[in-house]
Every structure is written in C-alpha cells, then in structure tokens.
Design a protein that fits this description.
- There is one protein chain.
- By secondary structure, the protein is α/β, with parallel strands linked by helices.
- The protein has one domain: Rossmann fold, CATH 3.40.50.1240.
- Helices cover 30% and strands 22% of the residues.
- It has four helices and six strands, in the order βαβαβαβαββ.
- The protein has helices at 28-43, 57-70, 87-94, 112-122; strands at residues 2-8, 50-54, 76-79, 103-108, 136-141, 154-160.
- Strands 3-2-4-1-5-6 form a six-stranded mixed β-sheet, sandwiched between helices.
- The longest helix has 16 residues, at 28-43.
- The two termini are 27 Å apart.
Length: 162
C-alpha cells in the first residue's frame, strides 16, 4: 500500500509591487504553520521517502520548513509543472514514481491539491473542498504501484488544518 501526502503551501505574503505571483514568499504566519506542521508530522512519525514541490517561492519555503522541523532526510525535488498544477499534472508526476517510494509528499497549490484529494478519495474532482493554506491530507492508497493510481483508490487517513 502506498501513501500520499498532499500539502498546500502555507500562508504567503501578498504579491509585491512587481505583481509576480511565483515570487511570493511565506508570511510570518506561513512560517509558523510550516514549522508547526513539521513538528506535528515528526510527532506522528510521518517521514516520506520522496518530496516534490512547486517552484513557487512559497511552496519551496513550505517544503524546506516542513523537512527541517519534521526531521526528514529525503531531498526536495522542485518542479515547475507543479506551479498552479491541475489534477492531471499532479497525477502524471505521481504515477511516474519508482516502486521503492512508499510515501510521497507533494507541495503545490489550490485548487489542484483540493481537486486531487477529492479525485483520489471520491472518484470525482468536483467537491468544493475547503483547503486552506498549510493544509495537509494524508491519503492511504489501495495500490502497489504508483502507476495504478486512479479515481477513488484512496482513503483519507487524516487531514491536518492549521
């Protein structure tokens, strides 16, 4: 059985004078959320084998904080295709994981992360899931290989909301 951690980046600062969204950094609240989540995951002994995140500054900072405070050793793989990714974009990456990865953590953006959780746990991606910044869903997947990922193959193990 595989496990997927679906994390929306933590709270971010508003866009700066340049108006460029991808360069938005975490706010002070976002830094607190990420650190607290990392500590909580360490307490719950959650340590993924692989971590993939959007190349947006706020997503990278979220991943870095969670890794630091969670005591994880897996490197962070930064991917441009995760920036404002759809379910299809996210699943393309997830299904390409090697068999040895048992637990994968992805750090991305809404609405893609909420749609992915909905798709995996209900066979649909149209639930109006409220997925605040810094929310983590841990999904147990009834699959042996990432390539078997399909709608409804997951069960929500826990949902951590800041």
């Amino acid at each position: 059985m595989k496990s997927l951690l679906v994390l929306r980046h933590a709270d971010a600062k508003p866009a700066g004078a340049d108006g460029i969204d991808i360069t938005r950094a975490l706010s002070d609240l976002g830094k607190q959320q990420s650190a607290a989540l990392g500590r909580r995951m360490a307490d719950d002994d959650i340590k993924p084998d692989a971590i993939s995140c959007s190349d947006a500054v706020r997503a990278r900072e979220t991943a870095e904080q969670v890794v630091e405070y969670g005591g994880w050793t897996a490197p962070i793989k930064v991917l441009h295709q995760f920036y404002n990714a759809s379910v299809a974009d996210l699943t393309r990456h997830i299904t390409s994981q090697v068999r040895e990865v048992e637990q994968l953590c992805i750090v991305a953006h809404a609405p893609g992360v909420a749609d992915l959780v909905s798709w995996l746990t209900t066979r649909s991606d149209d639930l109006a899931l409220v997925y605040p910044a810094g929310t983590l869903a841990v999904i147990d997947l009834d699959i042996d290989s990432w390539a078997e990922l399909k709608p409804g193959c997951g069960a929500l193990h826990c949902l951590l909301v800041p």
